[in-house]
Every structure is written in structure tokens, then in C-alpha cells.
Amino acid sequence: MANTDLQKLVNQVEIKSDGDVFHEIFRERPHHISTMSPSLIQNVDIHDGHDWGTVGSIIYWNYTHDGKEKVAKDIIREINEEKKLVKYEIVDGDIKEHYKTFFATVHVDTEGENNLVTWTFEYEKLNEDVEDPTSLMDFCITLTKDIETHHLSPTK
User: Can you list the domains of the chain with their CATH numbers?
Assistant: First the structure.
């Protein structure tokens, strides 16, 4: 009998840049990320007929992970303005070669002096030989730092 429980991987990174802006980027301006982190994200497009920043939007990502060019197609499943949270479901691309189900959630906590970005992966491996997506989590943490650096840079 198949195990239908999703595994979870969570990581947090503190940012000094504006948490509201960070949330806005992932909610409605992911196509700007390629200029903020060109070594990781080469291109972000939206599927015809959809708008940026809406639940149900289908987004295509061209990115470089572990030195290889990869692609992902995801659907925005949830946007929570109060919690500054965006949840994506990866429905096609390289990630789906290893995972039957894969959700990535980015949440920005702007309470207090510091802003905290929390990445949560919920996933089901295709088989027990598949590694946990720790390398992909490292990718997201690096991406977060690249976006922060871009926004703290005086030449932006």
C-alpha cells in the first residue's frame, strides 16, 4: 500500500530587505526574479490567459540547479495576503522526475524588527531511492539571499 503522507522540509532565512516587497515579488512579480538572480533563474513566463498574482496562474520557470539547466511548471494554489504566503504546486518539469507530488510555499514573517522568509516543501517521492530535496532547498535559500542583495544594493 502506498504511503500518501507528504514529507515536509522547512528552512528559514532572515532578510534585511523589505518583507512586504519580498512577498509581492513571489505573489505578482516572479518574472522580475531573473534580473535579481540571473545565475539561478534565467526566465519566468506565465501561461496565456492568466494574470500574475492570482490563484490558478500557471507559471513556467527556466532555472539552473546543481549546474544543470532545468524547467518547472507550477500553479499558484494559495495566496494569503495576511500571512504573506504564496503556495505553488509543481505540476511538470525536472522536479516531477523524482517526486509524485511537490508543493513549495514561501512565507514572509514581517513581525518585529527582522523579516523572516520561510520555505516549506511538501512532497511525495516517486520511490524510496529519491533523496530529500535539500539541494533544492539550498537553491531557494540562495535565491532568497540574491533577491535581498538586489534590494539592498544602492545601484538597483
Answer: 7-152 (3.30.530.20)
